[in-house]
Amino acid sequence: MLSNNDDINVLTFTSDLLRQQIVKRRMAQPTEEVADAAINLWEHLATQIISIVGEGGFNSIYARSVFLTQSTFPWLAADSLSPQTDHRFAELKISLEGQTPEQTNAGNSLLLITFTDILASLIGEQLTSLILRSA
After folding, report:
1. Full-model pTM
2. Res 10: pLDDT
3. Which distant-in-sequence residues (6+ apart) come within 8 Å of 83 by Cβ?
4. Domain spans in the chain, listed from the N-terminal domain onward
5. Which of 17, 57, 93, 96 is the most buried (most CB within 10 A)?
6. Given this model, what pLDDT does residue 86 score?
C-alpha cells in the first residue's frame, strides 16, 4: 500500500517525465536548425514567463539554470541576458552555434529541463507544463 508521500513521489516523477518529454519533442528539429529552434523556444518561454514572474524573476531562474547546466556542458556561456528583448539570448545562440547539432540539442535540452524544474517548484507543475506546451 502506498503512503501519501509515495503518492506524491509518483506524481512528481510522472510530472517531471512529462515535462522532459515535452522538451525533447520541442527540440526535435532538423539538425541544421537546432540553434535557431532553441532560441525561438526560449523567446516564447520568456514572453510567457515574464508576464507571470516578471523580468527579474525570469532572469534569476535562467541564470541559476545556466549555472547548474554548465557542470555538464561547460561550453554553455549564456549566463548574461541582454537587456534588449530582441537580443535577449544572443550569448546563448553563440554558444549553441559553436557546437555540433547533437551537442546543441543535448545542452539546450538539459538547460530547458533544469529551467522548468526550477519554475515548476515556484509556480506549480500544471502551469509550467501549460506554458511549455504552448511555447
Report:
1. 0.76
2. 39
3. none
4. 4-134
5. 96
6. 66
Cα 77–Cα 30–Cα 109 angle in degrees, nearest 5: 40
Distance CA 132, CA 22 (A): 7
- Pick from 14, 27, 11: which is nearest to 110 by CA? 27
Residues 6+ apart with CB under 8 A from 50: 57, 58
Of 20, 31, 50, whose CA–CA distance to 111 is shortest?
Answer: 20
Q: What is the reported pLDDT for 18?
A: 62
Q: Profile the chain (135 residues) by mean pLDDT over runs of 10 residues.
A: 44 54 59 81 92 92 94 82 73 91 90 93 87 79
Please say whether the beta carbons of 135 and 26 come within 8 A: yes
**Per the structure block, which three cell numbers stand in for 96?**
549553441
| All cell numbers assigned to 18 | 512529462
Alpha helices in the chain (DSSP H): 4-26, 34-69, 90-97, 101-123, 125-134
